[in-house]
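User: Hi! Is it possible to get a structure for several chains at once, not just one? Here's what I have:
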Amino acid sequence: MKKRLLIALFILATLAQFAVPSSMIYKYETVLGNGEVFRFKTAPVDPSDPFRGKYVTLSIENDSVKNTGHLFSYGESVFLVVENDKDGFAYFSKASKEKPATSNYYKTRCKWADGGEIRVQIGFDRYYMNEEKAPEAERRYNARRSKDASPSWVSVRILNGTAVIEDLFINGVSVNELLKGTR
Amino acid sequence: MGKNARGMKWLYGELPELEAKEIITPEAASKIRGYYGEIPVKDTRALVLAIFSVLGAILVGSGIILIIAHNWDGIPRNIKTLLAFLPLIISTVISGYVLLNGKESPAWKEAAAVFSGLSAAACIALISQIYNMGGNLHDYLTICLLLAILPIYVFNSSVLAAIYLLALIPWTFNAPNLYGHPDITIMITYFAFIAATTPHFLSMLFNKEFSFRYPWLGWVRSIVLVITIGMVFNHLDINIIIYSICFGFFYIVGLRFEDFSGPFLKRPINTSAILVLMFLMYAMSFQDFWDHIDFDMKYKYFLIIPGIFFIAFLSVSAKMIKEKKLDIIQSMVISFPLAVVLFWILILCFPSWDILESLPYLYFNIFIAALGILSILRGFRRGVLLDMNVGIVVLSMLIIVRFFDSHLSFVAKGSVFIFLGTASLMANWYFCKRLKKEKA
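Assistant: Yes, the chains can be modeled jointly so their relative placement is included. Here is the combined structure:
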C-alpha cells in the first residue's frame, strides 16, 4: 500500500517536473511563432551566470513609461503597451494595472515609481552566448560605438504579456553574423 | 528511550566483574542484558556512502549542466531544448530504478532525491538560457521549491529537505517585498513552503528517530527560520512579536518532544529557541527598544499566521502546565512570549499611558535577573555546576548590557566586571568544595 502510494507520488512528481519546462517551451515557441517583432535599443555588457553560462546583459534604453495616474509600488505587476516610435524602435506607451485590449503588451513588475514616471523590470535583459563570444560581443560594441553611429538593438517578439528575444544586433549587424569565426 | 551505546558498552564491560564479585547474580546480569538488548552499532559506512552518493549526484548533475551551459552555437534550438531535458531524464530513470527495486539504503534514496530535485531546477535554468529569459531568482526558486516537495517525501530525503530549506534564504532575500511594501502573498507562500517540509521533520520527531539526520536537519531548519522569518514581515515593525511567538512555540515543542537524555546539540528545536529567546530578552531590556513600538492596522491580516502560532503555543504550554511537566525556570521562559504580546498590545492600545514608557523595560530587567538567580539557586540545590554557571552568565550578561545604556565611568565599569568575575570564581570554588564535602 505504502509502496503504491510512493509510486503514485513519484509519477506525479515526474509529471510536474516535465510539465513545467514543457509549458515554458510551449509558451515561448508560441510567442516566437505568433508574436509581433519589436526592436528595443540596447547596450550589451558581458557578465556570467555560474550555471546558465555566459550572457550579455542588455541595458534597454526605454525601460520607463510616463505615469498616467495609477499608483504603483515596488514589485507590483504592471501591464505595458508596446508601440514603435518614428525611427522604428519600440517604447512603452502606457502602463496600467489591468490587461490592455491589444495583444502587444508586456507584463512585468514595477522597479521604481514617482508621480510622473514608472521604471520597470525588463525580463528580456539577457542574451546567452558561447563563453568565448560573450566578452567579444561587448568588446566589439565598445570599440565601434564612438565612430559608428548605427545603433545596437535587440529584436523581441511580444505576445499577450510575454517577450522572447529573437536576435541581438550590435551596430546594426546581427551578433551571430558579427562574431562568425570567433571561437 | 534512546540507546546510549557508550553507556551500554561500559555497563556490559562491568557485568562480568560484578558477577564474579557476587554483587549481582548471573540471572540479574542476564536480565540486564535482556532489558537493554544489543549494543547499537553505528554504521559509519552507510553514512559515508550516503554522503558520497549525494556529493556524486550533485557533481554529475552540475557537470551536465555546465557542459550544456557552454552554449553550443552550432546546435539548433530544438536539439538544445531536448538536451536540456537530459539531466531530468537520467534522474527520472535512476529515481524510478531506486523506487521500483525497493532500494532501502539511505545512500540510494538520498542521491536519487537530490539528483531529481536538482535536475528539475537545472532543466528550467537551461530552458531559460535557450530562450534568453532574464533572471528573476525569486520566481525561479518558487518553481524549483514547488517541484522539490514531492521527491522529499517519495525518497524520505533529509538532504533534499535541507537544500530546499537553504534555498528559502535567497528566495526571501529576493522577494519583491524586501524593498517595497509588505506583501501578504509572500508571507503566506513562505509559511506554506515551510509547512511543506514540516511533516518530514515531524515524522522523525514524533517517531523518536533522533539519529544523525534529525539534529543536523533541525539545525538547518532553525538557522533558516532565524534568518528568514523576519524578512517576510519586512517594513511592519512586528519582528520582535513574530520571533517571540514562533520561537516560544518551538521552545515548548522541543521541550515536549525532543530527547533530553543526549547533549543539547541533539535537540535543535529547543536549543535554538533558547538562544533566540535569550537574545530577545536582552534586546527588550533596553529602554530604546520600547520607544519604537508601532503598527499600522491596515496590515492586520499579517497577524493571522503569528496568531495561529500563538494559539498553538498556548495550547501546548497549557497541556504541559496541566501535566506538571514544567519546572520554575521553564515556566518563566514560556511566560516570556506572553509578556511580550501583552506589553505590545498595551502600548498600541494605550499610547498615552506614561507608565508604559518604563514598565516593560523594568519588567524585563527584573525578569532576566530573576531567571539568573533562580538558575544559580537551582544549581546549588541540585548540585549541578552547569546550572549555577548558566545563572551566573545570565546575570553577568544583564549587568554588562546595562552598561551600554549607562553613563558610568570606565573605572566604575571595570570595578564591577572585576567584582562579577571574582564572585563567579568564588561561587565555583565554594560549589566544588561543597561537592567534595558531600562526597566525603
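The first strand of chain A starts at residue 36 and ends at 45. The radius of gyration of chain A is 20 Å.

User: Great, thank you!
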